[in-house]
Design brief:
The complex is a heterodimer of chains A (about 180) and B (about 325). Chain A is about 75% helix and about 0% strand. Chain B has a 6-stranded mixed beta sheet. Classes of the chains: A mainly alpha (about 180), B alpha+beta (about 325). Chains A and B meet through helix 1, helix 2, helix 3, helix 6 and helix 7 of A and helix 1, helix 3, helix 4, helix 10 and helix 11 of B.
C-alpha cells in the first residue's frame, strides 16, 4: 500500500490542487483521500478499476469540500503573485490569437501565464473544473471520467465542451481587463 | 464566429482523440473545408494546451507519514469525530440521553441481581451456592513457580487457530519459541488427538515475542485465524481470518481491549476483501502494474510495529494482562 500511495499521491494532489487552488487544502484532501481508500477498501468490489475508484474518492471529497466552503482559496497565488505589468496578458493575447497553436513549453516557462491559466480554471464552475482537471491535467479518457464522476460518457462530452468554451471566454475577458488596466 | 455546441462537442472529442476513426476523418475534412470550423478548432486547442501545460504539482514529501499518522490516530480514537458530533442534531442528543438513561437503569438492575446473589441465604451445604472468586488486583509477574496460571483482569484475550499439515514440526517449533522467549512458566500446553493447545498468559510484550517468533514459519500454515474476545467476555467479538503475524502483533499491542477489537475488526474486513477479490482483478484494478498487487495486500505494513528479537530472552516482566490460546490443528 505504501507503494500505491507513493505512486498515486502526486497525481491525486495535482488534480486536487487544480480544483481547489490551495496547496494546504490540496495536501489535506489528498491525505484524506488515501485514509478513506484504506478505511473503505472492503467496499471496493472491483466493478470499476482501482484507478478510477481512487480518483472518484478524491474528486468527491474535493467537490464536497468546495461546496462546503463555497469559495475558492487562492491564498498561495495571491501571496506570491508579483505586481502584474501586463506582460502575461499580452502573452496570453498572442496565445489566444486564432492563428496560433500554443506551445506548451512556452506556457510552462512563464510563471505569470501559468498563474493566469490557473486563475481562469478556478473561475469555472466546480463540475466543469473537475472534468477539465481529469481530462487535461490527469489525461483520463472519457470512459474513465464518466466512471469517476458517475455520469454518462455523453455528459462528459458536453460538459467538457462547455467547460473549454467557458474557459476560452474567461481567458479572453482576462486579456481585455488586463489591457484596459494598463492602458 | 457564433459557437455551435454540437460542432464544439465534435471538435473537442476530435482534439481528445475520442472519436471513432470514421468520424475522425469526417472532422478532418470539415476542418479543411470550412475555415471557421478550423479557427474554432485552434481556439479550443489553445485552451486545452494552456491547461495541459500547467506545471505538475508534487505532493508534499511528508504525505506518506501524515497518512500513517492519520490512520493510527483514527484507529485509536473511539469517539466520533468532531465534525460528526457537530452535525448531530437535537433529536440525536435526546436519543442519546434516553439510551444513557436506559443503560443506567439496566446497570442498576444487574447490580441488584449481583448484590442479591451475594447476600441471599445459601441453602444446603453450600456446594452449589455462589463462590466468590479471588480476583486479585495485584500485578502478577512470571516469577511464580508452577500451578495453574493466574490471570487478573485480562486486557487482551483471544485465540489463535492455526491449521497446518506440518503438525508435529509446528508444534515443536512453538514449544521451542516458548522457551526461547522466556515464556516456559507462562504457558500451559495440552495435546488432544489432532490438536495441541498452548494457553499463554503473559504481558503484551511476552505474547508478541512469541508471535514474532512464529512469523518465521507463518507461511507454512494452511490457515491462521485470530479470534479476539469482547472486553470482559469470553465470546468471539471478531475473527480475523488469514491473519498475518504483523496483524496479530498489532492487535495484541493495542493499549486497550476495545482498541484491540477495533483494530481486529479493521483487519478482518481487509482480509475478507482480499479473499473475495480474485488476484486477476487486483492486478487489473491497478492498471497493469503487477508489482502493486503485492503492495495492496501489504496494507498492514503501514501500521506495522517495530520488529521483535525473540532469541533466548529473559521472562517478560510486568502485569499479566494478555491471554492468548494458540490452538494448533492438523489439517490432514
Amino acid at each position: 500500500m505504501e507503494r500505491l500511495i507513493l505512486k498515486y499521491q502526486s497525481r491525486i494532489f495535482n488534480v486536487i490542487i487544480k480544483m481547489c487552488g490551495n496547496p494546504d487544502d490540496a495536501a489535506e484532501l489528498t491525505q484524506e483521500t488515501f485514509v478513506k481508500v484504506i478505511e473503505s477498501i472492503d467496499k471496493f468490489k472491483g466493478r470499476s478499476s482501482f484507478y478510477t475508484w481512487l480518483f472518484r474518492i478524491a474528486v468527491n471529497l474535493t467537490l464536497n469540500y468546495l461546496q462546503r466552503h463555497a469559495r475558492i482559496s487562492t491564498r498561495s497565488l495571491d501571496a506570491e503573485e508579483p505586481e502584474a505589468d501586463g506582460t502575461a496578458e499580452s502573452l496570453l493575447r498572442d496565445l489566444l490569437s486564432d492563428d496560433r497553436v500554443v506551445d506548451p513549453a512556452m506556457v510552462a516557462q512563464s510563471r505569470e501565464l501559468c498563474d493566469l491559466a490557473m486563475e481562469s480554471l478556478l473561475k469555472l464552475e466546480e463540475p466543469q473544473r473537475a472534468v477539465i482537471a481529469l481530462r487535461d491535467i490527469e489525461g483520463m479518457n472519457y470512459n474513465d471520467i464518466a466512471d469517476v464522476l458517475n455520469i454518462e460518457v455523453g455528459t462528459v462530452r458536453s460538459r467538457l465542451s462547455r467547460a473549454r468554451s467557458n474557459l476560452r471566454e474567461i481567458l479572453e475577458s482576462m486579456v481585455n481587463e488586463g489591457e484596459s488596466k494598463h492602458r | 464566429m457564433k459557437v455551435n455546441p454540437n460542432i464544439d462537442e465534435l471538435l473537442n472529442s476530435f482534439l481528445d482523440g475520442e472519436l471513432p476513426p470514421r468520424q475522425h476523418v469526417e472532422v478532418q475534412r470539415l476542418v479543411a473545408r470550412d475555415p471557421q470550423v478550423g479557427r474554432r478548432l485552434r481556439q479550443l486547442q489553445s485552451c486545452k494546451t494552456l491547461i495541459s501545460a500547467l506545471p505538475r504539482a508534487e505532493a508534499p514529501g511528508e504525505m506518506l507519514e501524515q497518512i500513517k499518522l492519520s490512520l493510527e490516530r483514527r484507529a485509536l480514537l473511539e469517539e466520533p469525530s468532531v465534525s460528526s458530533r457537530s452535525i448531530a442534531g437535537r433529536w440525536q442528543l435526546i436519543a442519546r440521553r434516553f439510551v444513557a438513561a436506559a443503560a443506567m437503569i439496566a446497570l442498576l438492575g444487574v447490580l441488584g441481581v449481583v448484590v442479591y446473589q451475594i447476600l441471599a441465604p445459601v441453602s444446603g451445604t453450600g456446594v452449589n451456592g455462589p463462590v466468590a472468586k479471588n480476583a486479585s488486583s495485584e500485578p502478577l509477574t512470571d516469577d511464580r513457580q508452577g500451578g495453574p496460571i493466574p490471570v487478573a483482569v485480562a486486557e487482551f484475550s483471544g485465540r489463535l487457530e492455526i491449521r497446518t499439515a506440518s503438525f508435529l514440526s509446528t508444534s515443536a517449533f512453538i514449544s521451542r519459541a516458548v522457551e526461547e522467549n522466556g515464556l516456559s512458566r507462562s504457558v500451559e500446553s495440552e495435546v488432544t488427538g489432532n490438536s495441541r493447545i498452548f494457553r499463554v498468559a503473559s504481558t503484551r510484550e511476552g505474547v508478541n515475542r512469541l508471535l514474532a517468533g512464529l512469523s518465521e514459519i507463518w507461511q507454512t500454515f494452511d490457515m491462521a485465524t485470530l479470534r479476539v474476545d469482547r472486553p470482559g467476555q469470553y465470546t468471539d467479538a471478531v475473527a480475523v481470518e488469514a491473519v498475518t503475524p504483523e496483524q496479530a502483533i498489532k492487535v495484541v499491542a493495542q493499549g486497550s481491549a476495545q482498541t484491540a477489537v477495533e483494530t481486529a475488526r479493521n483487519y478482518a474486513q481487509m482480509n475478507a476483501m482480499r479473499r473475495d477479490m480474485p488476484a486477476g482483478e487486483i492486478l487489473a484494478m491497478i492498471h497493469d502494474d503487477a508489482s502493486d498487487a503485492r503492495d495492496l495486500t501489504n496494507i498492514d505494513e503501514i501500521v506495522r510495529s517495530a520488529g521483535f528479537k525473540p532469541k533466548t530472552l529473559p521472562a517478560p516482566q510486568g502485569k499479566i494482562d494478555t491471554t492468548l490460546t494458540i490452538i494448533l490443528l492438523r489439517t490432514r
